[in-house]
Design a protein that fits this description.
It contains eight helices and seven strands. It is α/β, with parallel strands linked by helices and 262 residues long. The protein has one domain (8-187, 230-255): Rossmann fold (3-Layer(aba) Sandwich). It binds nicotinamide-adenine-dinucleotide.
């Protein structure tokens, strides 16, 4: 962790859903947070910053497309300039495509890989370059999914991208351990966010079922008996960023209410 007085974190995809909850939680834990998201989500990102500030936390917004490497490098440089270091990178931004193999377009395939997999690569690399140079260690944390452990129907592109995130994370964990940098991913199940609403829309319209039924049937498959909330995931990320997780690296922590055992 950095020697600067302020512990700080970047969270990507932080204007919505899981990323939003992570940014708020890390700020509550005492981190100064960069709330990073696409330029089109600028108002929502500023709303998260305002919420953190209203609770006496420290945050700033940043516009970034994680699929564009120079933008990610600029985001890390601006964060370090502002807060004097970087302790935790949460590469959370992601997109979901719900389409059968026979209908998945190459544009959908490429965008999924560019955001979900290359996006994590860009974030890990830019953060790690700073952490290695600073010699302070740090935490790399990425968004995987239960789909990183088991492919599901109509999830080929999404699942492939998330398996890739786990592979990247396992390699990085070994490479960067000598620098005191850990790398772990979190693997949520069915979290009620705009992303899962779009998955439900896609599934139910293909099946000719009422909106909401895909989410409902997934809920019945969750042993803990309820949909996951963004806060359920944020609590795990808070742990991964904490001193208590210092001896944990290369792992995928499945947080899904008991659906899948890793
Ligand atoms: P969401 O759609 O609610 O939020 C995703 C955020 O990422 C949005 O604010 C969006 O603007 C941002 N984003 C998208 N592309 C971006 C890009 N190129 N650059 C920067 N920001 C970008 O999704 P969510 O449900 O909160 O998912 C967050 C992460 O958790 C994703 O990586 C997702 O794959 C993963 N995940 C979600 C679930 C779930 O059930 N919701 C389950 C497993 C994994």
């Amino acid at each position: 962790m950095s020697t600067s007085a302020v512990r700080s974190a970047i969270v990507t995809g932080a204007a919505s859903g899981i990323g939003r909850a992570i940014a708020v939680r890390l700020a509550r834990d005492g981190f100064a947070v960069t709330v990073a998201d696409l330029p089109t989500a600028g108002d929502a990102a500023q709303g998260v910053v305002d919420e953190i500030a209203a609770a006496a936390g420290t945050a700033r917004a940043a516009a970034v497309d994680v699929s564009v490497q120079p933008e990610v490098e600029g985001m890390v440089a601006a964060h370090v300039d502002t807060f004097g270091g970087l302790d935790v990178m949460v590469a959370n931004a992601g997109v979901a495509v719900t389409a059968p193999l026979l209908e998945t377009t190459s544009d959908q395939w490429r965008r999924t890989m560019d955001v979900n997999l290359a996006g994590v690569f860009h974030c890990y690399q830019a953060a790690a370059r700073h952490m290695v140079d600073a010699g302070t260690g740090g935490r790399l944390i990425g968004a995987a999914s239960v789909a990183a452990h088991r492919g599901g129907i109509w999830q080929g592109a999404y699942s492939a991208s998330k398996f890739g995130v786990r592979g990247l994370n396992q390699s990085v964990a070994q490479e960067l351990a000598p620098h005191g940098i850990t790398a772990n991913v979190y693997s949520p199940g069915v979290v009620h966010t705009p992303m899962w609403e779009s998955i439900d829309d896609a599934m139910t319209s293909r099946l000719g079922q009422p909106v909401g039924t895909a989410m409902q049937s997934m809920t019945q498959a969750i042993p803990l008996g309820r949909l996951e909330t963004p806060s359920d995931v944020a609590g795990v990320v808070s742990f991964l960023a904490s001193p208590d997780a210092g001896y944990l690296t290369g792992q995928s922590i499945v947080v899904d209410g008991g659906m899948w055992f890793s």
